[in-house]
Specification:
Blueprint (H helix, E strand, L loop, with lengths): L6 H6 L2 H5 L7 H15 L8 H18 L1 H102 L18 E5 L12 H12 L2 E7 L19 E6 L4 H10 L17 E4 L9 H5 L48 H51 L1
Antiparallel strand pairs: 1-3, 1-4, 2-3
Helix pairs in contact: 3-4, 5-9
Protein name: J domain-containing protein
Pfam families: DnaJ
Subcellular location: Cytoplasm; Nucleus
């Protein structure tokens, strides 16, 4: 049976801590610690010090408990039990804190996941909204471009009809002399072979040549530098003289006169020099045609598409066009013109201003539709280059 402790002894707490000795201290160590502490709080030395009196009373109870074997054994068991309880409580508290921290971490992770999901939904919604706006803008731009293209096509058809009516009226209403319109862009394309030595420098770049041709013969549709034809491997040939750059120049459908004038200026005529070539030594022919041959629309203009006889002293001369918006300014300016549709007078300021406005509208429409027509024109240029290469190969094979 456990010894009965007084209330004072129970209230004392840990006697080892009061005396400042370890749990396994011997009785000698306990009494030595008691004597050492009593010197600092003995009532005889400090008669009026209540604090010293309380401390002396506590160490007296502690030494009595620890010098009594039964009470000390009971206290040791009690202290050990309290120690185990504290350790158990500390372990449970640590486990509880770990669980709480894990729970808080899961809650934070769930909150972050929820926020990330909401942010992802918001970003996806914003991206979808931007894509929808972009799609609508592209559709609107495509519709506007298509409308502008159709309007430009209709305006070009109207100009062509007006040109046909004007040509028919100038021929006295006789359909026999009516101008035949080009069937496709190939009939408005000239193959221009320039000499290797060009002192003018106009053929050095595509832009410089475009500027020179546009200033002299009117607006162009396309101009492309063609690759040089490689040597044939089928049959060895004699070394040929090196040639300069070769260009495919496509005139606009409304600039038939400029195409005609450029062809006439560079046409080789027997017994005479070219009338006024852009670069001396330039050779020209229509795409898909042999030298000297011309499409039907050139013959329908009333000008000789064939070479004149050797007895002719001078070839027909094509006058340069005026730098203006009228398409008739590049025809030969002779008294009796070989081109029946040449006007007999210069355009009035009113018609000139009207045509300038039409050109501005057309340029705006061209800029708008250029993105859509780019692929179509690229395919057409590739087809033209392919036809030209096939024709050159056929000519080389025939010459061999």
């Amino acid at each position: 049976m456990a010894p009965l402790l007084s209330e004072e002894e129970l209230a004392l707490g840990d006697p080892y801590e009061v005396l400042g000795v370890p749990v396994d201290a011997t009785e000698k160590q306990i009494r030595s610690a008691y004597r050492s502490l009593s010197l600092r709080c003995h009532p005889d030395r400090f008669p009026n010090d209540e604090k010293a009196a309380k401390q002396f009373f506590s160490i007296s109870l502690a030494v009595n408990l620890l010098t009594d074997p039964s009470k000390r054994s009971f206290l040791n068991g009690r202290i050990e039990e309290e120690k185990r309880k504290k350790e158990k409580t500390a372990g449970m508290e640590k486990k509880r804190r770990t669980m709480v921290e894990a729970l808080q971490a899961r809650e934070e992770e769930a909150k972050r996941a929820k926020l990330d999901l909401a942010r992802a939904h918001a970003d996806a919604s914003a991206e979808q909204s931007v894509q929808e706006i972009g799609r609508k803008m592209r559709e609107d731009a495509a519709r506007a471009a298509e409308a502008a293209r159709l309007q430009a096509v209709e305006e070009e058809k109207q100009r062509i009809r007006e040109l046909e009516r004007a040509t028919g009226s100038m021929n006295g209403g006789n359909n026999k002399g009516a101008v035949v319109m080009p069937e496709n862009s190939l009939e408005l394309t000239l193959m221009m072979q320039f000499p290797l030595a060009d002192s003018t420098g106009l053929t050095s770049t595509t832009d410089s040549l475009r500027s020179a041709l546009s200033a002299r013969y009117g607006p162009l549709e396309n101009i492309d530098l063609l690759p040089q034809a490689g040597p044939s491997e089928a049959k060895p040939k004699k070394s040929k003289k090196a040639k300069g750059p070769r260009y495919a120049v496509e005139f606009r459908r409304t600039n038939m006169d400029g195409c005609w004038a450029c062809w006439k200026d560079h046409l080789e005529v027997e017994g005479a020099e070219k009338s006024r070539p852009l670069v001396p030594g330039t050779k020209v022919k229509f795409a898909g045609k042999k030298d000297g041959e011309a499409p039907a629309w050139v013959d329908s203009l009333g000008s000789t598409g064939k070479k004149p006889a050797a007895s002719d002293t001078k070839p027909p001369t094509a006058a340069p066009p005026k730098i203006s918006s009228t398409f008739t300014s590049s025809f030969p300016s002779t008294t009796t013109s070989s081109f029946p549709s040449v006007p007999s007078s210069f355009p009035t300021p009113e018609s000139k201003r009207k045509q300038q406005e039409e050109q501005r509208e057309r340029r705006a429409a061209d800029d708008f539709e250029s993105g859509i027509l780019f692929r179509m024109r690229q395919q057409e240029r590739e087809k033209l280059e392919r036809q030209i290469r096939e024709q050159e190969e056929a000519e080389e094979t025939a010459a061999a």
